[in-house]
Design a protein that fits this description.
single chain, 129 residues, mainly beta, SH3 type barrels, six-stranded mixed β-sheet, two-stranded antiparallel ribbon, 2 helices, 39% strand
């Protein structure tokens, strides 16, 4: 369905869809997923990222210790949290989930994945936090 009009209203996005003209039609589309082609999105500003750019990135903490990979991101009232599936010191998945605030100064650097290599997020975080 094509979006005819959209605006932010508090924490919600109000959208008028082509072919959805009344409340009954709107109730029929409740719960449907919304997808936007990446080409239709604006480029993020410096220091801003789309969540899908961060998911899957390796997270490296103090002294180069690999903490794991970003599995998902949680939106909280104050700041977003990186949900990182943990690794042992030997680099094996340990199943531990770390919630790392996605804020400066905890996040030191974000290097997005490119065609030349995997990306990485450097954080001020230790394996035993």
């Amino acid at each position: 369905m094509a979006v005819l009009e959209a605006k932010v209203h508090g924490r919600f996005l109000l959208v008028q869809l082509d072919g959805v003209a009344d409340r009954t039609a709107a109730e029929a589309v409740v719960g449907m997923e919304i997808a936007v082609d990446r080409a239709d999105l604006p480029e993020p500003s410096v220091g801003e990222y789309y969540w899908d750019q961060l998911i899957g990135l390796e997270v490296v903490g103090h002294e180069g210790v690999i903490l794991g990979r970003v599995e998902r991101i949680l939106e909280t009232g104050g700041h977003d949290l990186l949900c990182v599936k943990g690794y042992t010191d030997e680099g094996h998945a340990d199943g531990r989930e770390r919630l790392i605030p996605f804020v400066a100064p905890i996040v030191r650097e974000v290097m997005l994945a490119t065609e030349h290599g995997a990306g990485q997020i450097a954080v001020e975080w230790a394996v035993d936090y």
